[in-house]
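User: Run a structure prediction on this.
Assistant: Running it now.
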Amino acid sequence: MIVNVLLTLLWLSGAVYLVAMFRAARAKGQLSLNLESIGLGAATNFFDTLGIGSFAPTTAYLKLRKMVPDSFIPGTLNAGHCLPTIVEALVFIKLVSVDPVLLAACIVAAPLGAVFGSAAVIRLPTQMVQGVVGVALVIASGLYVLQNLNLMPGGGSALSLAPSWIAVAAAAHVVLGALMTFGIGLYAPSLIMLSLMGLDPKAAFPIMMGACAFLMPVSGIRFMNTDRIDMRVALGIALGGIPAVLIAAYAVTSMPLVYLRWGVVAVVLYAAVVLLRAALRPAAATDSVSVASS
């Protein structure tokens, strides 16, 4: 019953968000295709479906290619990756078994954090956004290193948790939901936390994907109503990402990801250094990022 309700709500939120996205793009005069961002969305969401994560690689690419100003990165990430993430959640909630109470608790908690987080990001100075995102990229690269060295928690075999642990997991997802609006990916910390609690890592996939799928329409729509977003890039990420998710979920059974993660570590660390350097510069210099033409 709970799972069917969640799936129905996902379909409805996806439909509402799709309409809102095209309306926002049209209102901003950015209802056009950006081929580079379509390719970016396809690549990052393909590997996101396999557990790599999409926010850190996308942030690194946007920064290195100077596709959007730094202060636009959180909004463009949340708005662009929303629809592909909803597709991921629809697929994995149906394919992977997990306690529906735990699933629902984390899914309800994450959007609560997103409401407060998106409000903060919209108001923060550009330098502070650069600093937060830069630190997030350093943390993300560290998590990739831990994965490659097999130092991540292995997790247990449980498909459910005790009520007290469910409450802890839900509270933690409020915080993770808020951090995600800054461009800090939820997948890795959610997976680590749930694994440490004894949950089967595979069972964490519908939880983390479902949590993101419900919080991203909240934060995405909020960002789309501000000036800190490039709708051309966001639309491209969404258009490229949706088919890539379906290919990764249904056509790819296994793929060696360790070498890819090492490459991501190098690129993400470089982007982190660039962002942190920009955050420490005088305020007048922080918005001097050019936007690549479509």
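The chain is about 75% helix and 0% strand.
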